[in-house]
Amino acid sequence: MDAARALLDSLMGAERNAALEDREKYRRKFTDRTVCKHFLCGLCPYQMLDQTKSDVGEHKGGKEHDLRCKQEWESLSPEERKEYGFEYDLLEWLERLVRECDERIAASKRRIEEKEQEKPPEKKLNPEEQEKVLKLTVEMDELVAKAEALGEQGEVDKAMLVTTQVNGIKQQIKDITQPIQLLPNTDRQLVVCEVSGNLLCSTDTEDRKARHYAGRHYQGWMKIRAKLEELKETVGPRPPDWRPKRDDRGRDADRDRRRDRDRDRERDRDRDGIVTVESVAAGIGVTPHGIAADGEIDRETAIDVDHGRGGDVETMQQRRMVTL
Question: What are the strands, taking DSSP E only, across the chain?
């Protein structure tokens, strides 16, 4: 229901149900507080990133996207638009959003690099493996001593053969004490999207990549980055001595609407709090016969009451409408 009402407001104006002579007074202006200024400037991050990983929340203060206000805004010249500062606000916000997104992208890249360079954990040997390593170590020490003795005796060939056996034992010990290291799969690598920060895989299918590039998250960031570059070229940074233009149209419209609402509430309270003239008459001892059809108290009854209660006609007229 609220979505349908918002759509009608954006297309036909919030004053669509008002009388013809009152529509101009109730017509929303682009300076009104209820109008989204980012939407006027061509892009609303709340809408672009809605329900994505980078969702920035909901509009603060119930801002609405009004197409008629956008047309009014676009009819202004570039210099006139700069006087309001809406484009400066959007430019500065988009810069913050893009900077935060780039920081997340850089952090994701660092995590991937650290994971690839991470050393495997040391293997904890069970009792059987420990006993086997101990036996191999003793055997290797004996062979080393034998190879040294053969070398001193000048039997180099035999010493080289024993050394080969020592190297074989060393490899056996290494295979037991170190965990099995899988060769890195160079065909499958994580890749960070440079636009949205999403993680992709180098082995993703073309259909998976197409869904990513057509998704709301990627498309939203594409539009945000393109809009940021556009504003940098057409608007530029906010001048240090810039001051916002004072425009009372939106304030006057808001004030009129608040005044009308207050007046309606007061009228409703008065309607609910009115005490009928019959009840007043009953309270002061006047019969209904002394009350005219239009609610006026006839003069004779007023005089009788006046003699009996010390009042006057004017007082009786004031008593006919009593609010609680």
Answer: 190-192, 199-201, 274-275, 322-323
Side-chain-side CA neighbours of 170 within 13 Å: the count stands at: 9
Of 33, 85, 28, nearest to 62 (Cα)? 33
Show the tokens assigned to 317. 């007229």
DSSP 237: S
* Distances 243 to 88, 220, 239 between C-alpha atoms, Å: 11, 31, 9
Using the structure block, give the residue that is written with the tokens 């191999």. 136
CA dihedral sign, ordered 279, 284, 287, 291: negative
Vertex 299, ends 293 and 301: CA angle to 5°?
A: 80
- What pLDDT was estimated at residue 260? 54
Q: Are 322 and 311 in contact (CB under 8 A)?
A: no
| Percent of the chain at pLDDT exceeding 90 | 31
DSSP state of 204: -
Strands 322-323 and 199-201: unpaired
Tokens of 89: 């606000």
Whether the Cβ atoms of residue 69 and residue 35 lie closer than 8 Å to each other: yes
DSSP string, 242-276: --PPP--HHHHHHHHHHHHHHHHHHHHHHHHHEEP
Helix, strand, or coil here: 71? helix
Q: Please write the tens of the pLDDT for every residue from 221-264.
A: 999 999 999 999 999 999 988 888 765 444 444 555 555 556 55
- Cβ-in-10-Å burial (0-12, 13-18, 19+) of 194 comes to exposed
Selection from 1, 40, 34 nearest residue 15 by Cα: 34
Residues 6+ apart with CB under 8 A from 242: 85, 88
Name the amino acid, one letter, at 104. Answer: R
**Closest C-alpha among 142, 172, 147 to residue 157:** 147
Tokens of 292: 């005219």
Give pLDDT tens digits for 275-296: 444 444 444 444 444 444 444 4
Task: Tell me how far the alpha carbon of residue 110 is from its chain's centroid.
Answer: 26
Q: How far is CA 109 from the centre of its chain?
A: 25
Alpha-carbon span 123 to 258, nearest angstrom: 75
